[in-house]
Design a protein that fits this description.
The protein contains one helix and six strands, in the order βββαβββ. The chain is mostly beta strands and 95 residues long. Strand 5 and strand 6 form a beta hairpin.
């Protein structure tokens, strides 16, 4: 997929802002995605890392992810041993 066609990129690694309720936090994200022909929707997912994420957020929290390319709603899940949450979203991704 090409950025020239204004189609979603298939991956993004870099800085982002995590928006939860009325707070924002600078984080790093590694995001990937693909179009799922069964439901006709773009599914995107990845990991978010930042200082003390596990102390401030919980599994299942609804968040907004903002990158230099856009923003999209997501959910946090599956906290790994390194304190990174998994992010999942559907539709137009933030990259």
């Amino acid at each position: 997929m090409s950025a020239d066609n204004h189609e979603p990129l298939e991956e993004y690694d870099g800085p982002a802002t995590l928006l939860v309720d009325d707070t924002s936090e600078d984080v790093e994200v590694r995001l990937r995605g693909h179009f799922e022909p069964i439901d006709g929707t773009f599914h995107w997912y990845g990991r978010v890392s930042g200082d003390h994420l596990a102390q401030r957020h919980s599994n299942g929290a609804a968040v907004t992810v903002r990158t230099p390319h856009g923003e999209a709603d997501a959910k946090l899940s599956d906290l790994d041993p390194w304190g990174r949450f998994r992010l999942t979203g559907r539709g137009r991704p933030p990259f």
